[in-house]
Amino acid sequence: MSATRRRRIEVVGAGAAALSAAAIAAGPAAQATAAPITVYQIPATGLTFSGLVIPGPYFANVTAAPTATPGTVTFATPASPETCATSAGSAQITIGYTNLGTGKRGGVTVKPCDFATPAPLTATATVGRGPILITVRITGSDYKPDAGQPSLPGIGVFTAV
Question: Which UniProt keywords apply (predicted)?
Answer without folding.
Answer: Signal
